[in-house]
Amino acid sequence: MTHRMDIRVYYEDTDLAGIVYYANYLKYIERARTEYVRELGVDQGQLKAEQGIVFAVRRVEADYLLPARFDDLLCVETRPLKLTGARILLEQVVKRGGTVLFQAEVTLVALTDTGAPARIPAELRQSMTIG
User: What Gene3D superfamilies would the database entry show (predicted)?
Assistant: First the structure.
Protein backbone atom coordinates (compact mmCIF):
# COMPACT_ATOMS: atom_id res chain seq x y z
CA MET A 1 0.00 0.00 0.00
CA THR A 2 1.27 3.46 -0.89
CA HIS A 3 0.31 6.21 1.53
CA ARG A 4 -0.03 9.75 0.17
CA MET A 5 0.06 13.02 2.10
CA ASP A 6 -0.09 16.55 0.71
CA ILE A 7 2.17 19.28 2.07
CA ARG A 8 2.18 22.97 1.16
CA VAL A 9 5.54 24.76 1.02
CA TYR A 10 5.51 27.78 3.30
CA TYR A 11 7.85 30.76 3.27
CA GLU A 12 9.54 29.43 6.42
CA ASP A 13 10.49 26.26 4.50
CA THR A 14 12.59 28.13 1.95
CA ASP A 15 16.03 29.69 1.76
CA LEU A 16 16.96 33.11 0.39
CA ALA A 17 16.50 31.84 -3.17
CA GLY A 18 12.91 30.77 -2.43
CA ILE A 19 13.86 27.08 -2.71
CA VAL A 20 12.96 24.51 -0.04
CA TYR A 21 15.91 24.16 2.33
CA TYR A 22 17.26 20.61 1.97
CA ALA A 23 16.71 19.55 5.59
CA ASN A 24 13.00 20.32 5.32
CA TYR A 25 12.50 17.33 3.02
CA LEU A 26 13.48 15.17 6.00
CA LYS A 27 10.77 16.89 8.03
CA TYR A 28 8.23 16.32 5.26
CA ILE A 29 8.97 12.61 5.05
CA GLU A 30 8.94 12.30 8.86
CA ARG A 31 5.43 13.75 8.98
CA ALA A 32 4.32 11.43 6.20
CA ARG A 33 5.75 8.38 8.02
CA THR A 34 3.86 9.37 11.16
CA GLU A 35 0.60 9.66 9.24
CA TYR A 36 1.28 6.39 7.41
CA VAL A 37 1.69 4.51 10.69
CA ARG A 38 -1.39 6.26 12.10
CA GLU A 39 -3.39 5.19 9.04
CA LEU A 40 -2.28 1.60 9.71
CA GLY A 41 -4.04 1.93 13.06
CA VAL A 42 -0.99 2.37 15.28
CA ASP A 43 -1.01 5.00 18.01
CA GLN A 44 2.71 5.50 18.61
CA GLY A 45 2.15 7.16 21.98
CA GLN A 46 0.06 4.22 23.12
CA LEU A 47 2.63 1.76 21.72
CA LYS A 48 5.32 3.39 23.83
CA ALA A 49 3.14 3.61 26.95
CA GLU A 50 1.82 0.05 26.78
CA GLN A 51 4.67 -1.93 25.19
CA GLY A 52 7.68 0.35 25.63
CA ILE A 53 8.35 0.31 21.86
CA VAL A 54 9.42 3.30 19.77
CA PHE A 55 10.67 3.66 16.21
CA ALA A 56 13.94 5.37 15.30
CA VAL A 57 15.51 6.22 11.97
CA ARG A 58 18.58 4.04 11.50
CA ARG A 59 19.52 5.13 7.99
CA VAL A 60 18.42 7.57 5.27
CA GLU A 61 19.66 7.46 1.70
CA ALA A 62 18.33 10.56 -0.07
CA ASP A 63 18.47 12.04 -3.54
CA TYR A 64 17.59 15.67 -4.16
CA LEU A 65 16.53 15.81 -7.80
CA LEU A 66 14.71 19.10 -8.40
CA PRO A 67 13.87 22.07 -6.17
CA ALA A 68 10.49 22.75 -4.62
CA ARG A 69 9.58 26.39 -4.18
CA PHE A 70 7.42 28.61 -2.01
CA ASP A 71 3.68 27.81 -2.26
CA ASP A 72 4.16 24.54 -4.16
CA LEU A 73 1.72 21.78 -3.26
CA LEU A 74 3.74 18.62 -2.75
CA CYS A 75 2.71 15.03 -2.27
CA VAL A 76 4.77 12.68 -0.12
CA GLU A 77 4.33 9.02 -1.04
CA THR A 78 5.39 6.37 1.46
CA ARG A 79 5.66 2.71 0.52
CA PRO A 80 7.09 -0.21 2.50
CA LEU A 81 9.80 -2.17 0.69
CA LYS A 82 10.98 -4.69 3.26
CA LEU A 83 10.01 -5.80 6.73
CA THR A 84 11.96 -7.91 9.20
CA GLY A 85 11.41 -8.65 12.86
CA ALA A 86 12.82 -5.32 14.02
CA ARG A 87 13.33 -3.24 10.82
CA ILE A 88 11.17 -1.50 8.25
CA LEU A 89 12.60 -0.26 4.95
CA LEU A 90 10.46 2.44 3.34
CA GLU A 91 10.62 4.27 0.05
CA GLN A 92 9.54 7.89 0.31
CA VAL A 93 9.08 10.17 -2.67
CA VAL A 94 8.21 13.87 -2.74
CA LYS A 95 6.42 14.96 -5.91
CA ARG A 96 5.05 18.14 -7.38
CA GLY A 97 2.32 16.99 -9.71
CA GLY A 98 3.81 13.96 -11.42
CA THR A 99 7.41 15.18 -11.11
CA VAL A 100 9.69 13.54 -8.51
CA LEU A 101 11.68 16.18 -6.63
CA PHE A 102 13.15 14.09 -3.82
CA GLN A 103 13.39 10.39 -3.07
CA ALA A 104 14.69 8.47 -0.11
CA GLU A 105 15.00 5.01 1.35
CA VAL A 106 14.53 5.11 5.10
CA THR A 107 15.36 2.29 7.50
CA LEU A 108 13.42 2.34 10.75
CA VAL A 109 14.17 0.16 13.73
CA ALA A 110 11.97 -0.77 16.66
CA LEU A 111 13.55 -0.09 20.03
CA THR A 112 12.66 -0.47 23.67
CA ASP A 113 12.62 2.71 25.70
CA THR A 114 16.14 1.76 26.88
CA GLY A 115 17.40 1.66 23.28
CA ALA A 116 17.62 -2.11 22.88
CA PRO A 117 16.26 -3.70 19.68
CA ALA A 118 12.61 -4.79 19.87
CA ARG A 119 10.34 -6.84 17.66
CA ILE A 120 7.84 -4.91 15.60
CA PRO A 121 4.37 -5.73 16.95
CA ALA A 122 2.65 -8.48 14.96
CA GLU A 123 -0.42 -6.35 14.25
CA LEU A 124 1.73 -3.70 12.58
CA ARG A 125 3.68 -6.27 10.55
CA GLN A 126 0.40 -7.81 9.38
CA SER A 127 -1.05 -4.46 8.35
CA MET A 128 1.88 -3.55 6.07
CA THR A 129 1.62 -4.66 2.45
CA ILE A 130 5.11 -4.99 0.96
CA GLY A 131 5.78 -4.17 -2.67
Answer: Hotdog Thioesterase
